[in-house]
């Protein structure tokens, strides 16, 4: 009987194996181009796949029967087809381009395309999702070309930043759906105010160099062009939870209605992220939401986005002194329990995009951002005259110093509109775009004393300084791409930008900063693209950008007597792009020539604050290589390399001299020195291994060369080169109770490297008899990043 049972069992398993088979195929567009990353689902089975670099999919273990094959890809109509399993032939799926309702035109005007002669990289939603476990956007973009990212708290949550080609966040233009995100005054983007924003991002384009004309702050090193989530045709729900080192937690819930009555769609997200941070007390408590709803007609789309972030972050701004790096890398000088940054920001976007006629498309958006918050500081033994307060007389003693707790506030409004019109001729030889925007910023800066060691003549809501800034920014641009021959495309881009910036009131150093400045900029760009063959292109371009100084350049310098000059950049880009079935790569050369670049020199203003000075000539020059190659069915190798030379031809360094009775500053002339925070080598290498369906193992490596903390090219004031390696595990499965389940484990810095990607320095002379009367003292401060640490998450898609 046992033998009979074994035979029957064997026969049943054999029958079952013959009854289950695979569904294979390839996905292309109507032009025959392969479409990697397309989503393929067999409805009713809970099984699906994603096409590989060759556009192929393979769904295994499907019981025999009749099914509906469902294929989707950004920018294309959804494909459905009834199929019978088993299949005798490989399926050939051809996707048709979608109409305007795909929302692609929302970012079209500010995007570079395959025929645009500039240097850019595209980051897809899938690329972001693989690393998105709650860390901020700069950390998620760390492995893209020429990027150096860093975190104040050392673990990627809280205050983070990035540099591209050595240019910091204040020189990187950021737009979301074509709407400016840079702070109008500082030009920075504070990603901590947008926690978990990556979970609502559909794709990002990074343009390096001047790039194409865009809205908002000047593109003076790079731009990040972000498009938020686009319409989902099917209803969905997503739950994403992750945890990791330093008590890091992330909880995210996301839902969407899908397309209702073929016209309406709504979706939303709620997120919370908390972390203790690697640095002592560098905790973060971050909350955010994103809601979107829209009407999707045949030729018109109207969409409303509402998103907000709230953060409370314990300050880790001071960094770690160099002498403590070896003994106490997590040192934080702040111990007051509420030494925090507390800020909230709400964004409202009303967007229209549509087709107005044959070949004519339009996009327009109104936006409003409301921000408010403060940072609180305990000030030990602070001077009363810094707050405009008289000395106190208590018990016959005169008190000029005492412990104080203060708050510095920023309450701001930013609103305006952007638009673009695009016309393409019927033969596609002419592609014309007219766009622009008008925006106003109103910023109220004020400070309060909320506690004093001894009662003084001040009430809790009294403001010891108060000033208002109003900034109007108007720009208009026109772009044209003309197909001169079968393979040659000519490109032109002209932008005008007008700025009015006014100040009124008293600054935090009790100086009257009342004044007004105006700028008018003309930013031309020209270039060409030569299509060697399908997927192979040469390109070259010349572009000009002009940039106004930031707020501190005006408030720290008398506007009338010593107003800083605006900066000018001339940018040459040339490169070669290749896209093939098994490999893609880009190689480009760039030259960025600056005139009147503003840099810190150690120069003091009349109240002892350090100001930035214009330097006549400086430049960045380099080559960038990036690509990916599919070594075999299971192995993919990708990476990038940037080699550069970044120089200031001449500038004057000012050093404080305390070695004499009368304080003075000594001037030292430096020539042909490296620009601060501009490593000559930045590289990344990523190895992906897929041993079986659903599992992906990735080794991510990053190398950053030496960075100087100032512009003197002094190795005693520098950040050491570093190499880090991360290990990532992604396992995706499709159990029957959910559409998809994904488990991710990210082990950062697996070799426990000790490294610091950011810092600052200052030097001064002090008396020293043995040194001929004085000694030069240099103090360096660093932002150490965590050693080996991990993040793990699980995501359910319903």
CA radius of gyration is: 29 Å
How much beta, percentage-wise?
A: over 45%
Reported CATH architecture of the largest domain: Beta Barrel
Overall tally of domains: 2
CATH top level of the largest domain?
A: Mainly Beta
In angstroms, what separates the terminal alpha carbons?
Answer: 46 Å
Biggest sheet descriptor? 22 strands, antiparallel, barrel
Shape by Cα distribution: globular
The computed structural class is: mainly beta
What would your notes on this structure say?
The protein folds into two domains: 2-98, Carboxypeptidase-like, regulatory domain (Immunoglobulin-like, Sandwich), CATH 2.60.40.1120; 236-249 and 264-797, TonB-dependent receptor, beta-barrel domain (Maltoporin, Chain A, Beta Barrel), CATH 2.40.170.20. By secondary structure, it is mainly beta. It is globular, with a radius of gyration of 29 Å. A hairpin with an 8-residue loop joins β17 (264-275) and β18. It is built from five helices and 44 strands. Helix content is 5%, strand content 59%. Belongs to the TonB-dependent receptor family. Its main location: membrane. Residues 327-750 form the TonB-dependent receptor-like beta-barrel domain. Keywords: Cell outer membrane, Ion transport, Iron, Iron transport, Membrane, Receptor, Signal, TonB box, Transmembrane, Transmembrane beta strand, Transport.
